[in-house]
Amino acid sequence: MPDLIIVGTDGSPAANAAAAWAVDDAARRGCPVRFVSVIDRWAYSAVKFPTGAGDPLTQQAERALAEAEAIARKRRPDVEVSLEIAEGLPARILREKADEASAVVVGGTGVGGFAGAVLGSVASHVAGHAPGPVVVVRPGWEKAAEREEIVLGVDGSPECEPAMAYAFGEARLRGARIRAVYAWRLPILPLVPEIGYDPEEAREAEHRILSSALEPWRNRYPDVEVTEEAVLAHPVDALTAAAAGAALLVVGSHGRGALGSLVLGSVSRAVLHHAYCPVAVVRPRPSSG
Length: 289
Known about the structure:
Elements: E1 5-8, H1 13-29, E2 33-39, H2 56-75, E3 81-87, H3 90-97, E4 103-107, H4 122-129, E5 132-137, H5 141-144, E6 149-153, H6 161-174, E7 177-184, H7 199-220, E8 226-232, H8 235-243, E9 248-252, H9 267-274, E10 279-283
Parallel strand pairs: 1-2, 1-4, 2-3, 4-5, 6-7, 6-9, 7-8, 9-10
Antiparallel strand pairs: 5-10
Helix pairs in contact: 1-2, 3-4, 8-9
């Protein structure tokens, strides 16, 4: 997989926030950034408009790319930057380009080429379908980050492994600590009251699930500080509360357990809407074999 970060940009404040986040991450990784602006002529019923360098949508895309490049040059002049204009549906184009990159970064809202692309359209679609990490960034993310901490949603499933790999890798690059959050719920046993249930025993069992899931990653990244939180709560509530003031929230796209049976559209979608910090949704990549 190429070590390249792709950033969808349309000149909106959210896209520019994503550009700033991406070049910072690229500087840590020592990798290039490619800014991509997508012209969606159908969104404007503009298929009959002139095409080429002089048409308004192309000019708009060029302005968006120039803004993103200016942010990168000012913020991280040593990061290699390339620019690309593509035509089509923004969500589809960015989803397809995920195969070319180690991560895709998008803003949480958009205008222009991503017209009407509030969270729930472009960002949500890319996060829900693109392989690998998709990072969604809101304007003001730097001010919201009060501590150098990465919150990691853990559900104990194999599908969570890519998210754990990304979170630990980011933590090492940043010199940040990880707060691993595992949300669990009490079982509902109204129809079988004769079955005994010890809440404290259940709490200890859930802690063991979290510790077991983290153990191989602690061994692989002994330099990363990790705190564990197995909390009795809905996963969305637990994750958004833990992520308040954090530098990054990392979740998987689906799984089992507390976060599981909740694909993007539930937990992941909800934290994308409610978390103020950047959110990385990490889907497994297709196996090469």
